[in-house]
Amino acid sequence: MADNRTFTMIKPDAVENGHIGGILDQITASGFRIVAMKLTQMTKRDAETFYAVHNERPFFGELVEFMTRGPIVAAILEKDNAVEDFRTLIGATNPEDAAEGTIRKKYATSIGENAVHGSDSDENAQIEGAFHFAGREMF
Fold first, then answer.
1. What's the whole-model pTM score?
2. Is 117 designated active site?
């Protein structure tokens, strides 16, 4: 079912700061099952395509530059009510506004460098997961 999967990326800032293990531990401890995962680096074209919804926004260029500056961990997660539960787990975009114990409260340093991405809808979870993974890469 569509509402059982979501997509996430551990962003370059969290990878650079050595937080992959801590973030993955928190994800799995929260009941998510990892069905696909890889360490990869987005090209400029990848980032521009993935974030095309933001291409008219003033921060678009900075976002593309940030997301291509180093590797990311892309993953598809499975759990009942995956999108909503994961959005709760990661917390508000601004880590100052994020609830205690959330991934962004623990690992993000700013609105721009907020450690993780989480899909905002079931439809986007499918689109974003398919952007990074072929069907044969999901288990």
1. 0.94
2. yes
